[in-house]
User: Which sequence fits this backbone?
């Protein structure tokens, strides 16, 4: 009932006499816009949103979209450097920082620390609850290099858990700070494994 015949195959609307419809197309001359479909008309002329226009065309509400499940994130893949045959450079470096032999040996024997073959850097590892290495902090034994292994996840930074259950956790900026605290505890005659020690992935 909105259409008004202008000629044999051309119509306008009662609302907009400059909007002409012909041969399956429409053009609104005063606005210089046009289109071919009812969807175009509802969106451009009536100002409907895309979803409102689709509901008018279908004559019923659109089904509510079911949100897609969030993609499962794969854990980062930690890229470990090749290990050196010995850890002489790392041991020498840590002893130079005053770290106790017992603590260095503990870290080596429990695979928390090793020496990289290429640069002879100290690599401090952090593990998830399944015992998979997920974090690697790297400290150069020559110079001041500090960094992380590619694929490191800071949620699993280097730490040494208490030997028995403990509700005390000591936090440290770096792995060497952690080992220094353990050394001080040992030198004071205290049990350095009585409480949880955790570094915050700092340099």
Assistant:
């Amino acid at each position: 009932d909105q259409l008004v015949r202008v000629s044999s195959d051309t119509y306008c609307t009662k609302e907009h006499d400059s909007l002409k419809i012909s041969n399956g197309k429409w053009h609104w001359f005063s606005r210089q816009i046009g289109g071919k479909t009812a969807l175009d008309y509802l969106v451009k002329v009536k100002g409907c949103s895309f979803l409102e226009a689709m509901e008018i065309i279908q004559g019923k509400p659109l089904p509510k979209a079911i949100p897609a499940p969030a993609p499962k994130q794969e854990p980062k893949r930690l890229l470990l450097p090749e290990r050196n045959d010995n850890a002489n450079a790392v041991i020498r470096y840590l002893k130079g920082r005053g770290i106790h032999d017992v603590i260095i040996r503990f870290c080596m024997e429990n695979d928390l620390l090793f020496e990289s073959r290429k640069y002879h850097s100290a690599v401090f590892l952090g593990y998830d609850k399944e015992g998979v290495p997920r974090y690697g902090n790297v400290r150069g034994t020559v110079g001041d290099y500090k960094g992380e292994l590619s694929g490191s996840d800071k949620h699993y930074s280097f730490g040494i858990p208490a030997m028995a259950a403990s509700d005390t956790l000591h936090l440290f900026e770096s792995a060497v700070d952690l080992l220094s605290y353990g050394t001080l505890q040992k030198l004071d005659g205290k049990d350095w494994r009585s409480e949880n020690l955790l570094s915050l992935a700092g340099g």
